[in-house]
Amino acid sequence: MAENISADMDRFKALGHSAFVMGYSGVAGAALVKELSKLKIFKKVVLIGRRALSQDYGPEFEQKVVDYEKLDDHKDVFKDLDVGFCCMGAHSKDVSKEDYVRINKDYVVNSAQIAKEQGCKHFTIITSKGSNKSSFLHALRIKAELEAGLEAINFERLSIFRPAKILQDGKASMILKPVIYAFPTALSVPDETFAKAMINNAVRPIKSSPVEIYENKDIHKLAKDS
């Protein structure tokens, strides 16, 4: 499988794709950018956020600052970027329910719609393990609404990743460690593993269905192909 993914990466790189990453300062986004910097499979990567960071990511990377409340003023940021990764979002414990909806659903769907209009063909989104429109948890209902909103945009390809807990630098709390040891692919995924899975999926040819959903165990399997 490693040989297959290497061939897919070579083929993908030769096609000269360009990408954008939203939410590149968070745990998943930072890990993704780190892997993209190593692999250099895109001729251009635009990092989109509410503020620029002082880090130098490499010559193919470009940071763009946007106001998500005024996205129509920033349409050109997405122009001719055919692959999109969205890692942005706020934790439910950190914001009000109204802000959770605005940041995790409205900003993302509005950005995705503009991205498609500007040429995005493949959009990858991180939602959550347990995403369900009938969930008794507000956050999981909103994640399901987000997925539905993105499906309605009708990208040529939509990849939905539903991870459990993403572990920064692969580190888990003392409480979680024995659980992870017993069930390594059920309740968590290291950030590097998650980033590799997203990239491996992006370089693969599209499957029969334009909408792909990857649960936590699937994410681990995708990453092993590298």
From TrEMBL:
GO CC terms: cytoplasm
Q: Which Gene Ontology biological process is one annotated for this entry?
A: import into nucleus
InterPro entries recorded for this chain? NAD(P)-bd_dom_sf
Q: Coiled-coil segments, which residues?
A: none
Query: Which branch of life, at top level?
Result: Eukaryota
Q: Which SUPFAM superfamilies match?
A: NAD(P)-binding Rossmann-fold domains
What protein name does the entry list? Answer: NAD(P)-binding domain-containing protein
Species of provenance: Arion vulgaris
Supply the gene name: ORF57294
